[in-house]
Amino acid sequence: MYRIGVDARLLSEAVTGIGRYTQEMLDALVGYGHNWTLYSHRPIVVGDWRRRDNVRIRTANLPWRGLRMAWAQSALPWWAAQDGVELFWAPTHRLPRYLPDRIARVVTVHDLVWKHAGQTMRPLSRWLDAKLMPEAVRLADRVIAVSEHTARDLLAEVPEAEGKVRVAPLGASALLEPQPRDTLHALGIDGPFFLFVGTLEPRKNLRRLLEAYATLPDNVRNSVRMVIAGGKGWGGVDALSIAAQLNIKDRIRIVGHASDALLSTLYAHAMFLAMPSLYEGFGLPLVEAMSMGTPVLTSNCASMPEVAGDAGLLVDPSDVNSISNGLLAMIMDHSLRQRLSEKARATAARYSWGKAAKATLKIFDEAVQARKEKLHASCR
Q1: What is the C-alpha radius of gyration for the chain, rounded to an integer number of angstroms?
Q2: Model confidence pLDDT, tens digit, residues 154-185
Q3: Does the predicted TM-score (pTM) go above 0.85?
Q4: What is the pLDDT of residue 117?
């Protein structure tokens, strides 16, 4: 039984991506016991943690987001020391530098976007990840990579981490029961459609996807809409403006940040998910779509072939023609979609938050033992 501290800052805002990972993993992990303290710079708004007997919450109330890094390197390690934390887990790339030596530490690395697709990041975020992620890996007793591909990328960048990197793939979130198809009519979705899910930012490659859709023959494009679900990110990716430039504005529907109920309904009724990202460390929408039996079109690079397995059609994300050919095949070839759909649920079943939690707890045990051995060696 450990006292475990968690950097829970991403639970202080609406969850996407790594925030979803933090929420789902914690929900599974706390069910296995131990005593957990969630730390954040602001009140936690995601999850009903106060109803869990083995979870404690300590938060500040910093009004300015820019102060959260200073808080993480000062107040957070101080609180962890006060609380007698034995193991500290950072679910996202960075560790407090000044944790007491007695505290074992684990960091999760989701991707190396800053290294392999840095042009798609905010300059400040890229600089911080480039500096703080390798530092966190060196400070950690164990490092969790969310895919084999991310593990390889990480060891290529920080070879001295060899021996302490472990792979624990993400899980498929339990989606709500989808609503009937006609509930989508209010959103202007009244016929066949394919789906894009992701934050509207350059790495998601939405511009090329729209360009590829625009190159389809008129009769094909007019038979299938494109639906875009995702909140605005950085980089000025304005799907509506791009669609207007391409003269396809009337063929797309933008639903914004989708609720869980809407998302499950979109997955269930889409012909397929299109996710030709330039780089992903894992790609949760792939697993979510496949768990509904929905086939996926995705990229032939990074972690996406690993996650999609044989339930996905792979394209070159840097080549509009490749994406266009993939769209055409998925739209026109019913037997292809059927074959991929039949494999989708079995592929998604490989991923669960329960499996991820059990793997993570084993890694926590390793980290605690490694920290004890390190302290023992330093006392000789």
Answers
A1: 22
A2: 999 999 999 999 999 999 877 889 999 999 99
A3: yes
A4: 85
Question: Which amino acid is it at 309?
Answer: G
Strands 3-7 and 35-40: parallel
Under a CB-based contact definition with an 8 Å cutoff, are residues 298 and 304 in contact? yes
CA distance 314 to 198: 18
**Residue/partner pairs of 265-269 with CB below 8 Å, 24 or more apart:** 265/178, 265/179, 265/183, 265/184, 266/184, 266/195, 266/197, 266/227, 266/229, 267/175, 267/178, 267/195, 267/292, 267/294, 268/178, 268/292, 268/294, 269/178, 269/181, 269/184, 269/193
Main-chain dihedrals φ then ψ at residue 241, nearest 5 degrees: -65, -40
What does the alpha-carbon distance between residue 311 and residue 315 come to, in Å, rounded to a whole number? 13
Distances (CA, A) of 161 to 85, 128, 172: 24, 19, 28
Q: Say how far apart CA 343 and CA 329 lie, in whole Å.
A: 17
Residue pair 139/164 in contact by the 8 Å Cβ criterion: no
The CA-CA-CA angle for residues 268, 270, 276, to 5°, reads 115
DSSP secondary structure letter of residue 61: -
* Cα three-residue angle 240-244-245, rounded to 5 degrees: 120
